[in-house]
Amino acid sequence: MFHSAALSMSDARSIDDEILSTLRAGDRDQAVTMLVRQYQRFVYSVALRQMNNVEDAQDVTQDVLMRAVRFVDGFQQQSSLQTWLYRVTINQCRSEFRRRRIKSFFGIGSDEGEIEVASAGPLPSDHAEQSDFDAYMRKVLAQLPPKQRETFSLRFYDELSYEQISAITGTSQGALKANYHWAVKKIAEHLKDSEYYAHWSGSHDAE
Amino acid sequence: MMPNDIQQELREQLSEHGLPVNELGPNMTAHKHRRDAAIESATSTMSMRVQRALNAQSVGRPRAARLALALTAAAATVIMVVTFHPDRGTTTQGSDSTSFGTISTHATERDVDALTDELVRRSSTSAAGWAVTDDDVDRLLGDAGLDL
Description:
The complex is a heterodimer of chains A (207) and B (148). By secondary structure, chain A is an all-alpha fold.
């Protein structure tokens, strides 16, 4: 779904080159627009998994993109912009939790304590079209070990290749494939124990 | 591999685990599409948000500096009250404690911001992953005199 997702790494690198060369040519506003449009969905998707809340994910996304704009001049292309933004997003989320821990310590906004990362809780009902199956899948994913959950999410939801995920997470492709395999196996086990499976099996029997 | 291939791959893998893919497949696809639409909706105004925030930041920084000065001055006044009127008892001491807590929070928040900036700067010049460690956090909190 992301502009960058269905691209090969070399295509993604070309887009990064275009953004950075626009920046270096002095058209900062255009470069910022390109950067934001290219990566906003990816950054938001990663932030949403970490923060588990739409508004918080939007705030983190805004902060990440603003920081990226501030520091992109010094970006030396040792990695892709996507890899860099992934790390910035993860660190920004952790900073946000840290900030809440401090505020909670001082009793500022006492109901804003640290929230469980990727907990199974429902997202705000901003998107009324979200079905029970969406909520069910969130619960299943929340029960996966973090590496398996992140690998599955980066591949299935963010549509990244193993090569891209490997570059982003610094994990070998073999290990990622193993993580993905185990994630799918556990998802399948959960689904088999669910009412959905019973319903699907019932509809099979009826045919 | 294209997105549809990834979805097809998942269907095949779930099928290997004995799940009825004809029923599950459309649910997974619809689930993915709803999530994509929600992300599209949540980020639809992000360009505008970022641009507005960047504009506000250039105006807001001097304002923030003035606010910080005002807060410091107010806190100094409270500390002076405590110094010169120690016999006012718990009410004044309570004010002092609150102000000091506020100052410490502001200082630590600035540290967290500075740390985040430093992480962004370092990762922009390196291929290696560089995530903040608990030691970094402990150092910052220690500098601020906090024990969380």
